[in-house]
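Lest this sound abstract, we let one protein speak, letters for residues, whole numbers for local backbone shapes, and leave readers to judge:
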Amino acid sequence: MEIPQTVKIGGITYTVRFDPLLGTQRRSFAEHHPFTQEIVLAEGQPPEQAGESLLHEIIEAINNHCQLGLEHQQIQVLGFILHQVLRDNKLVF
């Protein structure tokens, strides 16, 4: 998956960027920053993991903006399985 430079979520454009310190110093694959409208991905993760991390943070943003109240475990499962289904079935909308 090619990681886009921006994604639009609920009418808000988020910048997507890579951070070389995220994975090594903060031990995280990705972060969602609603205040700065950014999704930050750890630099150096394999492409499939980066795609899953991006999808996870998109779900985090949806959860935040729509006040769904999803627990982090639910977001992890949704991101993991949706990424697999979309990738393996070559689904593009």
User: Anything to note?
Assistant: The beta strands are 6-9, 12-19, 30-33, 38-42. The mean pLDDT is 94. Residues 6-88 form one domain. The longest helix spans residues 47-66.
